[in-house]
């Protein structure tokens, strides 16, 4: 399309539609109202041809979903980092306060790994207290 020369055409639209174009074209980073209308036509033409050409709509869906997933990944990574820092602090405080031998630590690690696997990560402090009180 870049090699094509643009052509001027008459366009009949309602004043309310023209008002919408005037309000929105800058928010879409368009240099002119004409560019905004051209983009709108291309989008709508792609939407209409999506039934016969399945490449258009899946591209939009894929790019949108990718952006959503990437945003979620970043948010989760930040939260996991903060959680790891807090867990490291907790482990260091407990290790400083308690004298735990290597055998007890290995047994506790195995027990905790089993517990997490059985409950699919749904562990609670209450269940740990109950276990420790029963030992």
Q: Mind explaining what this structure looks like?
A:
The protein has 135 residues and is mostly helical. It has a domain at 100-135. It is 71% helix and 0% strand. It contains five helices and no strands. It has helices spanning 15-24, 33-48, 56-97, 102-119, 125-134. The longest helix has 42 residues, at 56-97. It is rod-shaped, with a radius of gyration of 30 Å. The mean pLDDT is 87.
Describe the structure concisely for a colleague.
This protein has 135 residues and is an all-alpha fold. It is 71% helix and 0% strand.
H-E order: HHHHH
Approximate helicity band: over 70%
What would you call the shape?
rod-shaped
Task: Give me the count of strands.
Answer: 0
The number of distinct helices, counting runs of at least 4 residues, comes to: 5
Major β-sheet, in short?
A: none
The end-to-end span amounts to 76 Å
Radius of gyration: 30 Å
Q: Any low-confidence stretches, pLDDT <50, length ≥5?
A: none
Taking all residues together, what is the mean pLDDT?
87
Label the structural class. Answer: mainly alpha
Q: What is the percentage of strand-forming residues?
A: under 5%
Q: Can you lay out the helices and strands and say which pair or pack?
A:
Blueprint: H1 15-24, H2 33-48, H3 56-97, H4 102-119, H5 125-134
Defining key terms:
single chain; 135 residues; mainly alpha; 0% strand
